[in-house]
Amino acid sequence: QLHLVESGGGLVQPGGSLRLTCTASGFGFSRHAVTWYRQPPGKAREVVAWSSASGISTTYAESVEERFLVGRDNAKNTAYLDMNVLKPEDTAVYYCKVNDDWGQGTQVTVSS
Which of 51, 53, 73, 49 is nearest to 62 (CA)? Predict the structure, then answer.
């Protein structure tokens, strides 16, 4: 079982950027894919981005494609979500998931 902690959220103006980090403790991080989710206010949780265990393969939700970039450093048990050209509709709590384990989430607010 992994313990996951997201960090890097905050308030940013439209058009700005943020990097979210998912730090894992425990064993097995490098053997599993990482999925980033988000839950906008009053809406259901949705998949944002996915990275294979190696990091070679990635996929994105259409709404964030070409703006978000998912990466990972297995040597550091860490995954990243680089978010660029942020829009108000990106406002949400962002979560990382590895295997069956979830982090607690980090709030991202995009507002002027």
Answer: 49
